[in-house]
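input
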Amino acid sequence: MRFGVGKCQQREEQRRFEYEQRQAEAEAIARADAAAEIAESNRKARLERQEQIAREIRNREVRDLQLRAARADRWQRDVENAYRNTVAYRQRQTLLNELESAINPPAPPPEPEIVYVEAAEGSDQLGTSDFDPKLWMQKSRSWF
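output
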C-alpha cells in the first residue's frame, strides 16, 4: 500500500507542478497581452497627440495668414484714402486759387522808371581824353 500512496502523491505533485506551470504561462501570456494593449494604446495616443498638434499648428498658420491679409487690406485702404484726400485737397486749393485770382486780380506791374546817370567828370585812367589827376591820386594802389 505504501507503494501506491507514494505514487499517488508523486502524481499529485506532478499534476500540481503542471497546473502551476500552466498558470504561470497563462499569467505570462496575460501580462504580454496587457503590455501589448498598453503599448498599442500609447502608440494611438501619441499619434492622436501628433495629429492634434499638427492641426493646431495649421490653424495658427491660417489665422496668421488671415491677420496678415487683413493688415495688408487695411494698409491698402489707408493708402487709397490718403491719395483721395490729397487729390481732393489739391482740387480745392486750385479752385480757391482760381476764385481768388478772379475776385482779386493781381495788381498791374509798376511803370518802368527812367533813371539818368550822369557821368562823373574826368577819369582816373591814364591815357583817356578826360583824364583827371586828382581822381588818379585818390585811386587806391596796391604798391603803396
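quick obs: Residues 2-112 form one domain.
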